[in-house]
Amino acid sequence: MSRDKRDLVDELKRLPSLGNCSDSDLKALADAGDVVTLPDSWAFVHEGTPADAAYLLMEGEANVLAGRQIIASIGAGAIIGEMAYLEGGQRNATVATHG
Questions:
Q1: How far from 31 is each of 50, 56, 59, CA to CA, in Å?
Q2: Helices 3-13 and 23-32, interaxial angle, to 10°?
Q3: Which long-range CB contacts under 8 A does 34-43 form with residues at least 24 apart?
Q4: Is residue 56 within 8 Å of 26, Cβ to Cβ?
Q5: Per-residue pLDDT tens digits for 52-94
Q6: pTM: predicted TM-score of the whole model, two decimal places
Q7: Cα gap 83→70, rounded to integer Å
């Protein structure tokens, strides 16, 4: 495993939502995904669209919107869009970076 991948697994271990995952599970997660940095106010999940991925917020904050109304703010460790992705449905909300 590369140093970058080991560093990512270490970061994943520190997230409360993944605290019970084994090292092999975290390595599999690191292998399956990509790390991206998004600008402020960037919507990366769009309400009413088909789910093509699930997301894990590594740092920062995001707002969850229904229509144009913010219904929740989420932070590091939040798992986003997994239900629609796993069930093959459409997104129920928009999620945009914040701060």
A1: 24, 14, 19
A2: 120
A3: 35/8, 38/97, 39/97, 40/97, 40/98, 40/99, 41/96, 41/97, 41/98, 42/96, 42/97, 43/94, 43/95, 43/96
A4: no
A5: 999 999 999 999 999 999 999 999 999 999 989 999 989 999 9
A6: 0.88
A7: 20
